[in-house]
């Protein structure tokens, strides 16, 4: 037909090629797991990514549609993997290193990863399960010193692989709707679920998140990516920083508050992201040991858990640094909302402005929110009425990988978040509660239901209910309330911890246990968690 | 398939609905042709747009795929037309009111406009050609006082139309690749050519142009849209201001420098756009009559013609206001590049920084540039080598409306701009020359070839060559060099002007004429315009 626009698919290759053409001189600075600092340019990253793409095809036998796992911290090679794997039409699957080893095994088998790229410092975690990984044909060791040894079969050093390859490649023609990335949910309500991101959704999410109302990232910024690349594609920052021409600072495993502060100082970081726990730690460290020179840091974007008002306030008052609250989920690429003040808020009192900043914020263009009643009726945006938060849009999934599960989707095309929210007249969404079964500790979900069912599998436990209790460092920690089969039984916290540790990641295992005669129940006989929270989480009988 | 992202088409309706949901309280302020000021909100605009959409369907019989013309200044109703027409799947076709009446007649017939929405103050221009417009079934009068009379058949008052309609509508499901807008080129090299924009290209262009490296527009901005809505969809600003939640100030015909300054003061405008001529006029006015209070204006984005270094410098030094140079074409939606300084320029001398700002700038993500030799070979990005500028991307056309013309497109999928440019190592493009036949006066193209062929059609003219000469107000004006058939003929400038005025818009007719014995020729016998420019445009023999 005459009178058309060019067909120009939105792919990760268009991002990579753009970054090289226009921002080849911009920098990627990695503070590697061994403590060394590495700096190179987008142009150098681009050349190495093409070498990687050639190695994937030639040495590792990866073809379009294959999934390729990564098990790694944030650093330059991991950025190369994001672009190199998806560049040849394969699917980059960062694996959350903080899950239990059972979950990791399940995820790799379920995703059918053909190759796994693993940081040398993390290799020991995977060696014990390697024999049970059904689809993995090759292992590639990142940041591995020469002569590094492993029991993994078919293991290659990343640098050796790249060295053997030319840095030119003809990218294949890709459909923007095909998958480029994959993440698993944390398995809070059963097994972890796989989520595929398309090239298009990745591009649109990144282009939107760099906009001034959102992350506000430009070629004048130096951005610290605290959010791990194994967490929902690091919130899209490895893509959006290239689109924006922003320098990236990647901390790998150097996530201790003092290390991050030193890094921000050394690199002139002015923007950053992360979960609240990290920023609480940084604040406390800065309070304890104030930096001699003020940081260049202007703002940090926080998601993963609610950003406490008190932290927003303290960071701003003590150091003039703005906390920007955002919200999203694995199923939403992840970012869906962000809270910045608008001119209509300029005249409000400080407390009121803080209240708005502590909300999860307004939706970005490209996604839509609604709250609905239990019957599915849309509810008013009055800032008062609470309902289940639902979302749809250009980077929201319409199904999980390899499952027919439709529970999380409405018949009319919305994703059910499981959060209970209000939305005010200006569109600011606030999460008021959530599916009561979930605990979020240091940015990671913990399923109380899963803990309970395991605890109740212990021979001496009759009933167990797990709730979240406030925690200074992790925001929330699980507390297990337990009724023993026989009150004369002798069961110690250590017994229960050891029992749980067989199935759960370390951070998921409760530190605290309360032994009760019975667990309060609702009228229909369910555990009354509201009552438990009142008793143990809100200070009535708690510490 | 399982594991997919939702199908979420990028349409103008998603923009409109988003603006209403999240930024319903943001303002559209119109300074109307009669001098009155009108202010309303995005929410009110949204309700009226739905009334308009209903009127288009019910009263005006517009169906999906129809073209609907607008002949109007910048104001709220014209924004409603942008969204209302495309919202029902029809194509919004703003007609450039500054073209000659012959061109306007040609364009309306070629576009097959079914309805034309016309400002009451412009109705007299169209009445004389109405009978020759083959497809127009209805006229709708914008900003028309009650009792306004016209000879146009089937004329309706816009307000009457809207009033009769409900403000609820079920938008049809639209394919993001279908057309939502249409503009014609200025016909610089022959007849005007039609260009269709898709919903997708419009969305992606707007979302990209609001980004921090580009227009940098957020919900904290008050933006003055000097660029007319009849010029390439006002550079996408009516879309991107809604996406960004920025207040829009629309000046309609109040484009005199003093009026614009007063408007910026009254409305607290902090960002603006426009062609260089407008900003030169504003600068001169501010110099002559400095505002008592400094303007809130921070920056103005200029495109359409080269932004002179001297103007960038003077505006900045005298008033602290930044001129931001951008470049684009009707065929590119229009914006393709923009020039902002980056951190690597911070250490440069002022003169060098000015030199970079005066370049057309770096490409946006979503479009790609290249320069090629006469043989089509890509040339190096060294800031020195000149070649034809070519562009491709997500908002560049791959064909013109209703023509098989392929001259403007390369075999490998690039659009040939006709500009001759350099690109430096950092991707900054600079237009060095252009297809020698074009003159750009006050942001409007004038074809020297077209003027020449008409001049040479005058019985007493033997040869005519038209070149651009510098002009303080219009940047460039055409100068006609003429050889008479008989040197004893008596021909006045007025004769030639009147002769040209039959076929050309007023601004296209040269003011200046030089009578020569012969026109210098190149070795192959073509007019040597380079030599003419040396003689008359660069001061050798000029004024």
UniProtKB/TrEMBL annotation, chains A, B:
Keywords: Fatty acid metabolism, Ligase, Lipid metabolism. Coiled coil: none annotated. GO terms for biological process: fatty acid metabolic process. Transmembrane segments: none annotated. InterPro entries: AMP-bd_C, AMP-bd_C_sf, AMP-binding_CS, AMP-dep_synth/lig_dom, ANL_N_sf. One of its GO terms (molecular function) is ligase activity. The keyword Ligase applies. Residues 451-526 form the AMP-binding enzyme C-terminal domain. Residues 31-401 form the AMP-dependent synthetase/ligase domain. It comes from the Bacteria. Pfam families: AMP-binding (PF00501), AMP-binding_C (PF13193). The keyword Lipid metabolism applies. PANTHER family: ACYL-ACTIVATING ENZYME (PTHR43859), BUTANOATE--COA LIGASE AAE1-RELATED (PTHR43859:SF4). Belongs to the ATP-dependent AMP-binding enzyme family. This is Fatty-acyl-CoA synthase.
């Amino acid at each position: 037909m005459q009178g058309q626009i060019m067909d120009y698919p939105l792919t990760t290759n268009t991002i990579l090629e753009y970054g090289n053409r226009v921002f080849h001189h911009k920098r990627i600075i990695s503070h590697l797991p061994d403590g060394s600092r590495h700096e190179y340019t987008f142009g150098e990253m681009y050349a190495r990514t093409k070498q990687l793409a050639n190695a994937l095809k030639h040495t590792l036998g990866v073809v379009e549609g294959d999934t390729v796992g990564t098990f790694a911290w944030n650093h330059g090679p991991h950025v190369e993997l994001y672009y190199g794997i998806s560049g040849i039409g394969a699917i980059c699957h960062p694996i959350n290193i903080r899950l239990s080893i059972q979950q990791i095994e399940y995820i790799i088998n379920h995703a059918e990863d053909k190759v796994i790229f693993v940081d040398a410092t993390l290799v020991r975690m995977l060696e014990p399960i390697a024999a049970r990984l059904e689809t993995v044909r090759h292992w590639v060791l990142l940041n591995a010193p020469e002569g590094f040894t492993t029991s993994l079969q078919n293991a290659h050093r990343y640098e050796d692989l790249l060295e053997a390859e030319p840095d030119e490649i003809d990218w294949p023609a890709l459909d923007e709707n095909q998958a480029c990335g994959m993440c698993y949910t944390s398995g809070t309500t059963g097994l972890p679920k796989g989520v595929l991101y398309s090239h298009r959704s990745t591009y649109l999410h990144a282009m939107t998140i760099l906009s001034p109302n959102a992350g506000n990232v430009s070629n004048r910024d130096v951005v610290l990516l605290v959010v791990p690349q194994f967490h929902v594609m690091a919130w899209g920052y490895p893509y959006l920083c290239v689109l924006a021409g922003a320098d990236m600072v990647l901390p790998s495993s150097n996530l201790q508050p003092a290390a991050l502060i030193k890094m921000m100082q050394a690199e002139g970081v002015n923007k950053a992201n992360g979960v609240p726990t990290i920023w609480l730690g940084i604040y406390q460290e800065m309070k304890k040991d104030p930096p001699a020179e003020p940081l260049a840091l202007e703002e940090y974007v926080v998601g993963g858990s609610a950003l406490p008002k008190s932290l927003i306030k303290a960071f701003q008052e003590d150091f003039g640094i703005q906390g920007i609250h955002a919200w999203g989920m694995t199923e939403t690429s992840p970012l869906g909302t962000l809270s910045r003040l608008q001119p209509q808020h300029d005249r409000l009192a400080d407390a009121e402005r803080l209240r708005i900043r502590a909300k999860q914020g307004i939706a970005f263009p490209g996604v839509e929110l609604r709250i609905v009643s239990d019957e599915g009726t849309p509810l008013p945006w009055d800032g008062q009425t609470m309902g289940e938060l639902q979302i749809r849009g250009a980077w929201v999934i319409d199904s999980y990988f390899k499952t027919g599960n439709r529970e999380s989707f409405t018949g009319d095309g919305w994703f059910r978040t499981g959060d209970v929210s209000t939305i005010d007249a200006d569109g600011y969404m606030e999460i008021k509660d959530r599916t009561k079964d979930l605990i979020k500790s240091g940015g990671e979900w913990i399923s109380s239901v899963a803990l309970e069912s395991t605890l109740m599998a212990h021979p001496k436990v009759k009933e167990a209910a797990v709730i979240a209790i406030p925690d200074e460092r992790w925001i929330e920690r699980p507390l297990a309330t337990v009724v023993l089969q026989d009150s004369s039984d002798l069961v110690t916290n250590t017994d229960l911890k050891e029992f749980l540790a067989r199935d759960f990641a370390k951070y998921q295992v409760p530190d605290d246990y309360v032994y009760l005669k019975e667990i309060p129940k609702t009228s229909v006989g369910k555990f009354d968690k509201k009552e438990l929270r009142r008793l143990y989480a809100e200070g009535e009988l708690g510490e």
